[in-house]
């Protein structure tokens, strides 16, 4: 536990070095990340608006996609502004309370997205393998229940992981070679025994990743078998095309998470870890709207109508 004689949560400070070891790249990196964040906000908020205003998109698949966009927007907004601030200010310090808060809120959305991607895989499985029963299996009530499970899972995981941080002791000012308050930041900054916290991290991240991946892989295995049984080539193509966007998102997201947290990375350089962290905290929230919209005719058609309406009004 935190000992009052060694530290107080109000006085312990972290200094997030971020990319300060590359002083010549601070301005280009600021402009790059600002552009990415702007695209992320516009893309995800735009996706939410398009789905809400178009009755044709009021289906379970787009219901889940709307929530995925919301999660990506929230997560990016928690991380990226602090990253941008650290690129232009001299004082890169952050209190331990603020750091834990950033981690706790961020963890909610990271864990929620894991479950959400599994739910979306299940949705595709029902749509392709049991199309006649799709509206029964994926009723509005069941969709709402699945989203409640996803958010609840994220909140519970965040609470447990945050508690495992709070039992650590921190001494004085710690210099952290990262730009975000992720779990490894607290482990490296702790001056107490980390065994309990490391076990909690290993169990929760691997358990969440394993359980959700099992659901995703099982769903797509059954989808693949069903597609192979289809006699129509156009039917096979249409069924497969509805899954490719989700498969791309799953591959990128889980590949990065597994690389950073599920595989021991003590031998990885700090630069590789930071690049990986940038990818899943900053880049992936920007990519998801493009992944799902560029291969989705319904979304693209809705965007075209909105643009046409604005052009006519001008």
Annotation keywords:
314 residues; mainly alpha; 4% strand; single chain; disordered N terminus; three-stranded mixed β-sheet
What does the model show?
- This protein has ten helices and three strands.
- The protein has helices at residues 26-53, 60-88, 96-129, 134-137, 140-166, 183-189, 195-229, 233-262, 270-294, 297-313, and strands at residues 13-16, 93-95, 173-176.
- It has a three-stranded mixed sheet.
- Helix 1 packs parallel to helix 9 and helix 2 (60-88) packs antiparallel against helix 3.
- The chain is globular.
Question: What is the topological layout?
Answer:
Blueprint: E1 13-16, H1 26-53, H2 60-88, E2 93-95, H3 96-129, H4 134-137, H5 140-166, E3 173-176, H6 183-189, H7 195-229, H8 233-262, H9 270-294, H10 297-313
Helix pairs in contact: 1-2, 1-9, 2-3, 2-9, 3-5, 3-7, 3-8, 5-7, 7-8, 8-9
């Amino acid at each position: 536990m935190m000992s009052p004689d060694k530290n107080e949560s109000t006085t312990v400070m972290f200094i997030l070095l971020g990319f300060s070891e590359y002083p010549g790249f601070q301005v280009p990196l600021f402009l790059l990340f600002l552009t990415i964040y702007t695209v992320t906000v516009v893309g995800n908020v735009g996706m939410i608006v398009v789905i809400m205003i178009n009755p044709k998109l009021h289906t379970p698949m787009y219901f889940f996609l709307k929530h995925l966009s919301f999660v990506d927007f929230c997560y990016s907004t928690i991380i990226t502004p602090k990253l941008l601030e650290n690129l232009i200010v001299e004082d890169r310090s952050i209190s331990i309370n603020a750091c834990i808060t950033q981690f706790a809120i961020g963890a909610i959305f990271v864990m929620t997205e894991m479950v959400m991607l599994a739910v979306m895989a299940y949705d595709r499985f029902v749509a392709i393998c049991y199309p006649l029963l799709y509206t029964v299996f994926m009723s509005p009530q069941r969709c709402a229940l699945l989203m409640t499970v996803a958010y609840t899972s994220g909140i519970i995981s965040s609470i447990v992981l945050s508690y495992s941080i709070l039992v650590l002791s921190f001494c004085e000012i710690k210099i952290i070679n990262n730009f975000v308050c992720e779990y490894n930041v607290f482990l490296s900054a702790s001056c107490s025994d980390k065994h309990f916290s490391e076990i909690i991290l290993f169990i929760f991240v691997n358990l969440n990743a394993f359980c959700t991946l099992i659901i995703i892989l099982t769903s797509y295995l059954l989808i693949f078998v069903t597609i192979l049984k289809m006699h129509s080539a156009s039917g096979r193509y249409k069924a497969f095309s509805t899954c490719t966007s989700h498969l791309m998102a799953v591959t990128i997201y889980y590949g990065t998470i597994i690389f950073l947290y599920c595989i021991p990375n003590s031998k990885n350089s700090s630069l590789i870890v930071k690049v990986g962290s940038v990818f899943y905290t900053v880049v992936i929230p920007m990519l998801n709207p493009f992944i799902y919209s560029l291969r989705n005719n319904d979304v693209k058609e809705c965007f075209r109508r909105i643009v046409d309406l604005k052009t006519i009004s001008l």
